[in-house]
Amino acid sequence: MAEVETEASAPAGFESVAFAGIGLTCEMLEPVQLASPEDWELVVSELEPWGEVPEPGAIESLLPGASNRGPIVTLFSDSKWLAEFLPWGSDGRLKRRCTSAQSVTDAPCGGYTWNGDDVILVRFAKDGGPDAGSELIDSLESGDASQAKEVLHRCGAVLGNYHTEVEDVRTTPPDPRRWNTHFASLEESLRADLIWRAPFTRDVPCMLSLGDVRLSDTVGQTVRIGRPRMADCLNEPNCEFPAIRDLASLVHDLSRIHHNYGSELDIVELRSSLIDGWRSTAPEDWCSTDAFYAHRGGLAIWEYEQCMLDVIEAVSNQSGAPEPAVTILRHVRGFQKKMFNNRTLGALSIMAAFFGISSIINQFPPSIDELPIPILFFIASVGLFLSYRSSSPPPERPITHSV
Questions:
Q1: Helix 267-281 vs helix 243-260: crossing angle, to nearest 10
Q2: 20 to 30 A Cα–Cα from 127, which one of 2, 94, 294, 295?
Q3: Residue 380 is part of which domain span?
Q4: Pairing of strands 171-172, 48-51
């Protein structure tokens, strides 16, 4: 992506920058300079504070830093603060997340907005112990399968606790049309030769999702509420998402770590521990068998989305093919073909039920001698339907293992 001119305005201490590439655009707000307390005072001078934030004049010194999600500044006063800049803003629900599940989240204590958009998140700087991502890496490097599974089960349970906490805060019906439009937009941005649409089950309502969740976000029994990933700016979603998308984000992060460290531990067992942990604490309907049913999207289609988001970021940064996302995407076509072939069983089940009903109608009222024929059709219909349901790839198996 190349920098292009922009006429967007910016608050004092910031500059507005824009980038464009083939099918991708991105507008960001970046601080001009952060080297002294005076720079910090200028940066926040035109911003609207919320929650608990440091007094601008009380900052004695600061230490700038950066990550792949934007600048980070450590502020020193009578307390130690961490200010995280959001170059591409957020989805507008950050404050709601921060106040809706405080018992299970490591949430910012405040922040700053400009024209209603989140610009900076502020939290107290503290040492909370090792994060689950680091613990998992240690387990993979030592080959300790039991420890790795324990860490993953805990991560899943923490995420499930968050979903249980926010279940009553905001839940709306599933939005298959907009979800499929979102997938279409991602595929179009990538000039992809793949198309994946799903009818989706009713057991995946929209909720106050975390969006992007990494194993490193879990420390102890809390999950960190952080900044959105760059892909959310390159392809801005126009919908809300279900809880299973958060789980897919966490599962895909496991796939990244497992691949990057070349672990020989069984990925199916590791995924199973993570999913079981989530199921142990998440709302019952949200983690039902229907919610994981791959023929209606399940976990697999949201993993597909996570892979496309990885590729979009890699394309924008020209950082090379992201793995394992690219390998997973190569197997999507075979995965879809297998599910399409499975639908033959569903079609035969419908046909058997139709013949059974037709037999009863044509011979109504049927005699005792005529009843065995429709009964056999109904038994065959039920058997074929159960076979069709059981042929759905289980969520524990990655797409690469299900082809």
A1: 150
A2: 94
A3: 340-390
A4: unpaired
Assess whether the previous peptide bond of 11 is cis (omega < 30° from 0). no
Residue 376: inside a domain, yes or no? yes
Q: Are residues 112 and 162 in the same domain?
A: no
- The H or E element spanning position 27 is strand 24-31
Among 349, 341, 353, residue whose Cα is nearest residue 383: 349
Name the residue among 162, 159, 156 with its Cα closest to residue 272: 156
Facing residues of 172 across strands? Answer: 206
Q: What is residue 167's three-state secondary structure?
A: coil
Q: Tell me the β-bridge partners of 30.
A: 15
Q: At what angle do helices 300-317 and 176-189 cross, to 10 degrees?
A: 30
* Domain shared by 350 and 309, yes or no: no
Which tokens hold the place of 282? Answer: 């998440």
Main-chain phi, psi angles of 5, to 5 degrees: -70, 150
What length does the chain have? 403
8 A C-beta contact, residue 73 and residue 79: no
85, 119 Cβ separation under 8 angstroms: yes
This prediction's pTM = 0.90
* β-bridge partners, 224: 106
Going from the C-alpha of 275 to that of each of 248, 266, 308, 392, the distances in angstroms are 10, 15, 22, 17
Which single residue is written with the structure tokens 């860490």? Answer: 151
**Residue 283 has which token pair?**
């709302």
Q: Is residue 192 included in any domain, yes or no? A: yes
Boundary of a domain, candidates 99, 124, 149: 124
Distance CA(85)–CA(328), nearest Å, equals 32
Pair 331, 355 in one domain: no
Residue 370 is predicted with a pLDDT of: 67
Q: Which amino acid is at 137?
A: I
Per-residue pLDDT at 403:
66
| Average pLDDT of adjacent 10-residue blocks, the chain of 403 residues | 83 91 84 92 94 88 90 92 92 86 90 92 86 96 96 97 93 95 93 92 93 94 92 90 97 97 95 97 94 93 97 88 95 90 80 79 70 79 80 91 75
Angle (CA) 132 134 137, round 5°? 110
Tell me if 403 is assigned to some domain: no
* H or E element that contains 123: strand 117-124
What is the pLDDT of the chain when averaged over all its residues?
Answer: 90
Q: Are 230 and 272 in the same domain?
A: yes
Structure tokens given for 117: 């958009």
Both 90 and 156 in a single domain?
no
Q: Are 84 and 75 in contact (CB under 8 A)?
A: no
